[in-house]
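Mods, move this if it's the wrong board.
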Amino acid sequence: MLALHAVTKEYDGLAVLDNVELTLKPGDVVGLIGANGAGKSTLLQIAAGVVEPGRGTVTTDGEAVGYLPQRQPDAHLRVEAYLTNLLPWPDEAYRLEIALAKVGLGYELKSRWLDELSGGQKTRVGLAGLLLSNPSVLLLDEPTNNLDSDSLDWLIGFIRRFEGAALMASHDRRVLDLVTTQVVELAHGRLAHYGGNYSFYLDQKAIERAAQAVKYQTYRTEQKQLKQAIAQKRAMADKAGRASAPDNEKMITHYLQDKVSRLYHKDAKTMTKRLERLPEVQRPAPDRTYTVTVSGQTAAAKLIVAAENLAFAYNGHEVIEDVSFEIRGSQRLGILGANGAGKSTLLKLVAGQLQPSRGQVRLGQGVRLGYYSQEATEVMLGTGLDYLRTSGASVQACYDMALSLRLSPGAVRQLCSQLSYGGLAKLRFAALLLQPVDLLVLDEPTNHLEIGVRHDLEAGLQQYGGAIVVASHDAYFLERIGLTDALTLKSGG
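Not the wrong board. C-alpha cells:
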C-alpha cells in the first residue's frame, strides 16, 4: 500500500534518515518510536508527500494517504468552514456530519471556532478532515497528545476498526501496546524493525542489549588474547635472535636461531593479520542517569494561589463557571475533566494569561509563578542557547538543564526553528526550570516528550518543594508526582 525505499534526508549535512526501508500492507498498524529529534516527523512528512526525500522513493500504488501532523489547525475559522475546505467535492457537504460522527464529535460542534477548541477536540477535527478523503493509509504524528481517557479509548477503537494500514508516531505505551502489529525504532537515521507490540519491543531490546554485551565481551577477550600472543611471539623471536653459543657451534647456532626467529615472526605476523581482520564489535551504550532538578521551596502554611468564583466565556460560550479553590504550601492540584471542559482555560486564568469574566485569582505575597502551555505560541528566535539565556542563567547552567532533559549540546546550539516539537518542548521546560518559582502551572507537560524524559521529569517534580497546578491526561504522570487534591471540571462549565 505504501513503501519507502532507500529514503535518505539530510539537513545541514547531517543525515536525519539514512537508507530507510519501510513497507505498509493492509492490516498493518506500525508504531514509530524514537527519541525527540530522531526524525520521526520527517519520516512521516516524506511518506505523506509533504517533504521530498533527498534520495530514495516513496510509492503508494494509488492509495489515498491521510496525514495528521503534530500541530493541529488553530485558525480563526469555524469547524464547518475548515472541513468544507478539505472536501474533495464541495457538493458533498453531508460528508461533514459523517466524518464528525466517526471521530466521536457531535455535529453541533461545526459552528464552534477552531481556536476555541481544546487540544483533544482539535485532534479529532484533524482526524475528521483526514476521513473526508476516505484514506486507506493513515500517517499519524503523536495523535494521543491532549486526548482525555475517553478520547484515547475512542482512538484505540478507531485504529483497530480501520481497514487500511497505519503508521503512528507515539510515546504512549498503552496505546502502542493495544493497537500495534509491529514497532519500528528510528535511531541514528536507521530503522530497526520489531514484530509485535511495544511490550514485545521492550523484551526484544533487553535481549539485544544482553546479547550485545556478551558479544562485546567475547570480542574484547579475543582481542586481548591475540595482542598478548603477538607480544609473546615477538619477544621469543627477539630472544632467539640474541642467544649466544660456543665459537665452534656459532654457524649452526646462527642458522637455527635465524630459522626459529623467522618462525616466531611469521606466527606474530599471522596473528596480527587475524587481529586486524577481527570484526569490530561496538561497545553497548551505557545506561546514563539523568537528573532533573526543579528549584523552589515554600512554607507549608503560605497562601500560594486562591481562585474565587471564576467564570470565563468565549464569544458567549461559557467555558468556566463558578470555580473556586485555594492552594497553600507545596500542595499539588490536578485539574481533571474531558476534552473541552475548560482545563487549559482555567490554567491560563491562574497564570494571568486570560482575565476572568467574573471572579478573581489572587497570588500569595511574593509568589513567583512559572507557566507551561500545551500550545507553544511564542516565537522562539535564534538558537536554543539564545532562548535559554533570556532566563538570566549562566551558559553552563543552561547547558546543564538542557542535558538533564536529554537535549544534547548540539541541539542547544541549533536554531530553534530547526528543532523538533519534542526538542522545543524540552527547551521550553528547561527555560521554565532555570528559575526558582513557588508555583508551577503545567498544561499537558508530557506532550511530545519521550518516555525516558517523562520519567526523569516526574522524578524531578517529586522532589520539588513548591506548589503545582497541573492538567494532564497522563494518569501515570499524575500518580507519580503525588497529587494532593483534584478539581474535576464538567463540560460546559
